[in-house]
Amino acid sequence: MSTLKVIKNRIRSVGNTKKISQTMRMVSAAKYAKTEKELNVVRPFGKAAIKFYEITEINPPIDPQSQLIIALTGDRGLCGSIHSGIAKTIIMDFQRLPQLSTKLICIGDKTRVILSRDHSEKILWVASEIGKKPMTFIDAALISQKILITQSNDEFHQTLIYYNKFQNAASYNVSSINLYESHALYKSNRFLFYDDINPETIKCWLEFATVAIIFWLSKEGITSEYAARMNAMESATKNASKMIKGLILSYNRTRQATITKELIEIISGASAVEKKD
Questions:
Q1: Which whole number is the average pLDDT over 36-54?
Q2: Helix, strand, or coil (residue 133)
Q3: How far apart are alpha carbons 233 and 10 in whole angstroms?
Q4: Is the pLDDT of residue 231 over 90?
Q5: Sequence-distant (≥ 6) Cβ neighbours of residue 227 within 8 angstroms
Q6: Would you report the helix, strand and coil content of the chain in percent, each value rounded to 5?
Q7: Which residues, other chains included, contact 101 with Cβ-Cβ below 8 Å and sequence gap of 6+?
Q8: In the chain, fewer beta carbons within 10 Å around the N or the C end?
Q9: Burial class, 196, CB count within 10 angstroms (exposed 0-12 / middle 13-18 / buried 19+)
Q10: Is 57 or 256 the better-scoring residue by pLDDT?
């Protein structure tokens, strides 16, 4: 039977954890409200770039021999399975197409930790400090520039970005987007209508489109992350409340048993004294 002091210490410890989870939920809720507003502003710019790909009818390669996968997550935890979900999807992609020569870029340290256990040789580079402070357009430009350099150095047949697509405060989906290069544009069905455009102009537009897509998807991911952390902290607070109730009940029962035991000892002692007299 647990002593009263041990149970009391556990109640105090769980109570402190509850206060921390409540505070983290409030902070996450405030950040979630801010990032959701930013996402609504940024989303049209990213979708405009994707719309151009749709208009030109770019078709992904039917039988690619190599691919570059970009995992877009963050560096912070305490938000459920939002990061591990992307890692699991990528691992399933490896298992589904084992014949492909695949390389990885991890934007965010969480997926690097998971994927490096069995696929460390596939990781080219990692962008850290993601999610600890709001990503700016300049940050997205630096990441996009390094992605474009990686694409130009190694010819990949396709480039996929895996990210968390924000639905609402309670749900998100692991999604992927093709990040096309200039050679894919020239092979498209309807790009011939733009044959009078300077190739340098197309190159500049693709660079800007890549930055816009990375910036948009990062906002999708961080909004999903704050929503998931808010829900995780709410669940942690509820679980802590239930645990405290159970511990209080156990404390009261133990206290009652201790008092009963002491009363029995006192009564037994008094009875023994009366018999001697």
A1: 88
A2: coil
A3: 20
A4: yes
A5: 32, 166, 168, 169, 170, 172
A6: 65, 15, 20
A7: 65, 66, 67
A8: C
A9: exposed
A10: 256
Q: Which helix (H) or strand (E) holds 205?
A: helix 199-276
Q: How much is the average pLDDT of 36-57?
A: 87
Q: What integer pLDDT is reported at residue 130 of this predicted model?
A: 79
Q: Which tokens go with 22? A: 């409540």
* Nearest residue to 72 (alpha-carbon basis) of 176, 175, 218, 216: 218
Q: Can you tell me the distance from the alpha carbon of 260 to that of 211, in angstroms, rounded to the nearest whole number?
A: 72
- What is the rounded distance in angstroms from the CA atom of residue 79 to the CA atom of residue 111? 14
For residues 157 and 97, the answer to whether their CB atoms sit within 8 Å is no
Mean pLDDT computed over every residue of the chain: 86
Beta carbons of 160 and 70 less than 8 angstroms apart: yes
185, with CB counted inside 10 A (0-12, 13-18, 19+), is middle
Instruction: Examine the pLDDT at 160 and tell me if it is beyond 70.
Output: yes
* pLDDT higher than 70, residue 191: no
Other Cβ atoms within 10 Å of 253 Cβ, number: 12
Q: Which of 171, 194, 176, 151 is closest to 57 using CA atoms?
A: 194
First-to-last alpha carbon distance for the chain, in angstroms, is: 37
Higher pLDDT, 146 or 198: 146
Assign residue 245 a region: left if phi > 0, alpha if psi is -120 to 50, beta otherwise? alpha
Tally the residues of the chain.
277
CB 130 within 8 A of CB 111: no
